[in-house]
Structure formats: structure tokens, C-alpha cells
Design goal:
This protein is 81% helix and 1% strand. The protein has one domain. Helix 1 packs across helix 12, helix 5 crosses helix 8 and helix 8 crosses helix 10. The N and C termini lie far apart (51 Å). By secondary structure, it is mainly alpha-helical. Keywords: Membrane, Transmembrane, Transmembrane helix. GO terms for molecular function: transmembrane transporter activity.
């Protein structure tokens, strides 16, 4: 395999790792901004609006170069649904849940996304499931192991392996007042909406091969719908004013990293690899959250985190192996079918040659 082929094959893997890092960073940064008093509804509207404005000249440039796609009513309808489910409803539930709980809980409950997506993909026949096949067994077992590991990280601490003295800022972030139950419920709803959005986005990406066009309209509809909902949910005019630097930083970071970068590369990965492959990386979020907390927030490292992280890693690679084995099996069946067809034709050719030789 040459270098270009290797990079092309490794691109989805590297991109999805970066996406998970970006999402965990966004959860932490948005929580810090909301602790300063920023409304989660205002945050959603502002960063999606800024991201859409950044995408606007890119969208026009693509169309000017002839790389755009023909916009049909069917596509507009799907863009609208993506904006409603993937931005408006999903982000309202997600950031309200983070506001009531914590980024770590958000990363942990986010591990429900692979379960919901796998069930939906199998139900809609977008993913094959044959429990007699080792590849399907590996995918199912890997998903269960990864989610179990995430639950261990969240629910079991154990003795401290590395003890640090957290800063005042991290103390405030970790000990902020919360409504854990309501936050957890909203984050679970977010996981279900994310799974539905991934399935819909994968189907839309096949109909609309240009990622920029899809993400632009997806973000545009999501911004408009979020603004309509947020005006009613956040009626205080003062809440729409930005008072702290962290609020501006969070909005710019979210616009660039999520609306522009994440949505574009996720659309590409959904079309290239499918929704189950994309959500397979979700269990890594809890590991990334743990590492970021240890590095930047002064969190302690506990035995439960190490055990859970090891289980998540093992489950993750089990699913990846299952998907690779499934592709190899399909390729082997295609070759076997071709050889079988060739063998059936071979005796006929041989007998024909023999009869010609006999007459000669």
C-alpha cells in the first residue's frame, strides 16, 4: 500500500478522533461560559448563526466553480428535518442537559448513541446483523463492552492513582449546582435525537454529494428554527447581551469547530463509512474527557477510570475488527461466486474443444 492509499484509508479514523476531542472541548468550554451567566439558548443561536455566516461565502464559491448540487424540494425537506432534529431540538436538549449536569456526564451518556444508532441501522437495513457470523458477534460484543467501560468510568471511582490540587476555576466547574436527574434525562434524549439525525444525515449525504451545500442549508434551517424556539424560551432581553470574554470565545470556538469543521467532516464520514462507523468512536469521548480533566482541570486519576478506559478501548477495537472482517467476508464471497461461475463454464468449453479435436 502506497502512502496516498494509506492516508486515504486512515483519514476517517484520524478525523473521527479529532471530532471527539473537539466535542469534549466544546462541552467543557460551553459549561464554563454558562457558569458565567450565558444562556444556553442564546449560545445555540449565536454560534450556529456565526457558523452559517462563515459557510455562506464557501457555499457561493463552490457554486461559482460548478461544484454545487441541484437543490430539489426533496433535499430542502431533508435539510429542514436535519436542522430541526440535528440542531434545534438536539442542541437545546444537549446544552440544557450540560447546564444542569456536567461535561463528564454528557460524555458518558453519549455512549448511548452507538446503541440507538446500531438498532436503527439494523431496523432500517442499513447495517447487516447475523449473530452466527463472527463479525456481527464482534460488533455486538464490542459495543456492549465499550458502553460497560463507560459506565464503569462514570459510576465507579476506586482508589486514587494520581492526586492533584485542582485550580479554583476547575473547582467551580466541578462543584457547580446541578440537577443531575433532569440533566441526565435531557442528555439521554439528546443521544436518541443524535442517532436519528445520523441516520437521516447519512441518507441525505448520498443524495447530496457536496458536503458544503448540505451543511450550509442544514445550519441555516437549524439557526432559524433555534432562534424561533429560543425567543420564546429566553424572553429576557439582557440574556442576549454578551458580558464576558469566555462567552465570545465559546461562541467562536463552537462556530468554527462544530458548525463548520465537525458537521462537514461528519457528513463526509457518514457517506463514506455509514452511521454505525461514525458513532463507534463515541465511547472514546469519556476517555478524552478524563484525559482533558487530568491535564487542564487538575482532576484526579482513579482506578475505575483506568479499568473503564481499557474496556472502552477493547470494545472500540472489537467493533472496528468486526467491520473490517465483514468487508473481507463480502469480498471473499464475491471472488468465490466469480470462481464458481467460471468453473461451471469451464467443462463446457473443455468438452467443446475435445469434440473439435475428435472430429479433426
Amino acid at each position: 500500500m502506497d502512502r496516498i492509499s494509506f492516508l486515504k484509508a486512515a483519514a476517517p479514523f484520524m478525523v473521527m478522533i479529532i471530532v471527539e476531542c473537539v466535542e469534549v472541548g466544546l462541552s467543557t468550554l460551553s459549561k464554563a461560559a454558562m457558569l458565567k451567566g450565558m444562556s444556553n439558548f442564546v449560545f445555540i443561536v449565536y454560534y450556529n448563526a456565526l457558523g452559517t455566516l462563515i459557510l455562506l461565502p464557501i457555499f457561493f464559491y463552490n457554486n461559482f466553480r460548478g461544484k454545487g448540487v441541484r437543490i430539489t424540494f426533496s433535499l430542502l425537506y431533508k435539510f429542514f428535518l436535519l436542522g430541526l432534529i440535528g440542531i434545534c431540538l438536539l442542541q437545546i436538549c444537549a446544552y440544557t442537559g450540560i447546564n444542569y449536569s456536567s461535561p463528564t456526564l454528557a460524555a458518558a451518556i453519549g455512549n448511548l448513541i452507538p446503541v440507538f444508532t446500531f438498532i436503527l441501522a439494523v431496523t432500517l437495513r442499513m447495517e447487516r446483523l447475523d449473530l452466527r457470523n463472527p463479525s456481527s458477534q464482534a460488533k455486538c460484543l464490542g459495543t456492549i463492552v465499550a458502553i460497560s467501560g463507560a459506565m464503569v468510568v462514570t459510576l465507579y471511582k476506586g482508589p486514587s492513582l494520581i492526586t492533584q490540587t485542582p485550580s479554583d476555576a476547575s473547582n467551580k466547574l466541578l462543584s457547580a449546582p446541578s440537577n443531575w436527574t433532569l440533566g441526565g434525562l435531557l442528555l439521554a434524549i439528546t443521544s436518541l435525537l443524535s442517532s436519528i439525525g445520523n441516520i437521516l444525515q447519512a441518507a441525505t449525504a448520498k443524495e447530496c454529494p457536496d458536503e458544503v451545500t448540505l451543511v450550509f442549508f442544514y445550519s441555516l434551517f437549524g439557526t432559524v428554527l433555534s432562534a424561533v424556539f429560543s425567543i420564546f424560551l429566553e424572553s429576557d432581553p439582557n440574556a442576549w447581551m454578551l458580558h464576558h470574554r469566555i462567552e465570545i470565545i465559546a461562541i467562536i470556538y463552537a462556530a468554527v469547530s462544530t458548525t463548520v469543521f465537525r458537521n462537514t467532516v461528519i457528513t463526509w464520514c457518514l457517506r463514506e463509512k455509514g452511521p454505525v462507523y461514525v458513532v463507534t468512536y463515541k465511547p472514546l469521548a469519556i476517555v478524552i474527557a478524563m484525559i482533558m480533566g487530568l491535564t487542564f482541570l487538575g482532576d484526579n486519576l482513579y482506578l475505575g477510570s483506568v479499568i473503564g478506559s481499557a474496556a472502552i478501548t477493547a470494545g472500540f477495537y472489537s467493533v472496528i475488527w468486526g467491520q473490517a472482517r465483514e468487508k473481507d467476508d463480502l469480498a471473499a464471497k464475491s471472488v468465490s461466486k466469480f470462481e464458481s461461475t467460471y468453473d461451471q463454464n469451464a467443462p463446457l468449453l473443455k468438452s467443446t474443444d475435445d469434440s473439435i479435436c475428435g472430429r479433426a
